[in-house]
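Regression test attached.
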Amino acid sequence: DTGVSQDPRHKITKRGQNVTFRCDPISEHNRLYWYRQTLGQGPEFLTYFQNEAQLEKSRLLSDRFSAERPKGSFSTLEIQRTEQGDSAMYLCASSRPPRDEQYFGPGTRLTVT
Amino acid sequence: DQQVKQNSPSLSVQEGRISILNCDYTNSMFDYFLWYKKYPAEGPTFLISISSIKDKNEDGRFTVFLNKSAKHLSLHIVPSQPGDSAVYFCAATGRDDKIIFGKGTRLHILP
């Protein structure tokens, strides 16, 4: 297994459009996390899944954001009606509970124009 | 409110010397601490962790020290090498396993 992968690596979209990102975790990891990172900040937690169950969502995740993990494998993060403030790096990580370190993917850089 | 603070945005260290990166936290419920390293255009990479029941953990050139009473931890890299130039994130987690990251410290290793 080559680690966590994310697709696409870069996305440029116009304000108001919808975008969807995909994350493929390490295969034996049943926890999957989404983070957002803006310039000069550390990654900020958005949401996480244990298998297919979404266990927690940050208040940063507005109604325009939705995440899914059907069948407990890959996950998608969708942003509807994008705004310029959504421009950021979106990172995905996976781990095995209870206290394994999280392995991060390379991220998807979103630019909203 | 920042629960994990890295007060030095950047640090420059001569190659071969010791690099010391500092981190403070405010939430007393944190019981597991991690350091991640990040190169440009890559996701963060796990470096080393420490549980609150310990005060030191060592892995090769990397040592993390935890002072629970001061709510402070530090990462020591010795000897520093050019490939250590990166952004280092301190992170902490509690029983909910949700990781809270600091803003990062950019380490420059000088030749």
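Expected vs. actual: identical. DSSP finds no helices and eleven strands in chain A.
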